[in-house]
Fold:
Amino acid sequence: MDTINGLTREQAMEKAYKIAFEGEGLRQACSQATWNAVSEVLGIKNDLIFKLSSALEGGGACTAKVACGAWSGAMLAFSYFFGRTYDQWLRSEKYLKSSFLGQKLYDKFVQEWGSAICPEIHQKLYGRNFDFSNKKDFDTFEEMGAHSIGCTVVCAKVSAWTVDILWDEIPKGLDMSMIPGPGDEVPKDLDLVKLTGRKGAGWGFEKKPK
Structure:
């Protein structure tokens, strides 16, 4: 049976759901809760990416008016594995796999909530929108279960879906934490092609020939 970090597909999805639910409920920040859950389950935790996800929270900069933070956190995960590298960008080389995976997640958003836009999801969940810059509005948001039965569930479902979508694309039977993140030093004896099974576009941090 295929596993990643010792987890089957179902176990990985269940763990991502649980981590995201608890993270959003206790610490909030939907974008960070989602990225944290997916990255922890797949062994790709990265402090820089976690930090970069911060302003994506609360429907974009805590406005509750743009993209769902859980959606944004998931896009970071797809891009981590399959995003276009800087070198590809310089060469104007198109590489859209991360976006294609994101489209699969978008279909799930539409099926579940009708949209991936924060206020439209709020309308579906709570029957109204919120202005997070208004304290009374935010207090009402909390009172209606935002961090107990509302956005916690959104983050949990999105995290599980993201793991499910990535499962068919990334190598199995590996400790994914061995794969370095952006800015990490790549061990000389680490064969990324052998480790990941990915050739061609690469992961974006292989050493380039001089």
Q: What stands out?
A: The first helix runs from residue 9 to 27. The chain has ten helices and no strands.
